[in-house]
Amino acid sequence: MAGLTPVADALAKVLDGAEPLPEEWIPVGEADGRVLSRDLVSRRTQPPADMSSMDGYAVRAADLPGTLPVAGEAAAGRPFAGSLAAGTALRIFTGAEMPAGADAVVMQEDVKRSGDTVTFAAAARPGQFVRPKGLDFSEGVPALSAGVRIEPRSLALAAAMNHASVPVHRRPRVAILSTGDELVEPGAEPGPGQIVSSNALALAAIVRREGGEATLLGIVPDRLDATLAAVRRTRAEGHDILVTSGGASVGEHDLMRQVIAEEGAEPSFWKIAMRPGKPLMMANLSGLRLLGLPGNPVASFVCATLFLGPLMRRLAGRSDILPVEEGAVLGVDLAANDHRQDYLRATLAESNGAWVVTPSPVQDSSMIRVLAEADALVVRVPHAPAAAKGTRCRIIRLAR
Length: 400
Ligand code: AMP
Ligand code: MG
Hints:
binds magnesium ion
């Protein structure tokens, strides 16, 4: 069908001109979920010296087997003063520095201690149970790359490299506006013909999970003045993105195009060749990126997954921005697809070591419950041929 924008083209337009936000320094302990704005170079070498990886005895391998006098002791944080003389052994514990002269550790289970001597029945391999200096990382060498989203493991690495603070990109600030005369806030009493607004809370949760700051602007009625006022206020407050839901199709009350026109801008696109979520809009209102999502809850969610997520990750400075597609096996037969790229809500179950994905038989884009129960979206490209149960397909897992 003419006039529909392919998903990939729409995404390219959403990302057009988007640059990572400016750098700021934050305490390393607050860096979980933040994105490094430059490579993190180690400030230390780890281990800082050769270290024992066992409780046992440090020796010169050439002295074994045999019975040796115990020259002293080394423990984590308490190194042995001096070097190990030939023909002696040192009592040593995990994490202790190896004394100069020693080249191996024999674990305590493999020796016989009696008074001040220790007997080694077997030979030792030089280097055994020794972690060499710099095994993990070395001073001056980058060990975490710009664009990495810090999680507990990379946070531990940054701390171990002795960074008290780390350079990250500022978080994207995202405002969320619901449009529609029919909407009331959760917990309110809906009047005749009204429904509870659910999109905004889901969008705010997505924004936070993507490492952004979410501001809920509430609901505006389908009126140009109210919508325009909300948009102008948002821009004045310095948000990076305004996400709207509703008012994006061609119906009489659909205002987002008018709002964008009033702001002297042109929407970047209008209808996307995808299902759910055909109407979608992007405009740049002097620095504020406006992303107009459809009102249908499933369409709003899927469009947020496909477009808002990547845009936020780009602004946040991440190097990995696209939704991850994985392989799975179809649990049912699927008919041939039409001209729109399909994102079918589906459940996943493991069977004989493979992930089997079963789309819900009903794919209405208003159905929040089906969405909440789904584990994945099955991606079907435009004009995909019929696919039989048991054949491979592509999925995007949904976060739990
Ligand atoms: P619209 O895009 O404004 O034409 O809305 C499409 C459908 O989504 C309508 O049935 C709306 O009632 C519904 N809808 C719009 N906004 C929301 C919202 N914030 N939460 C839940 N449903 C909504
Ligand atoms: Mg509406």
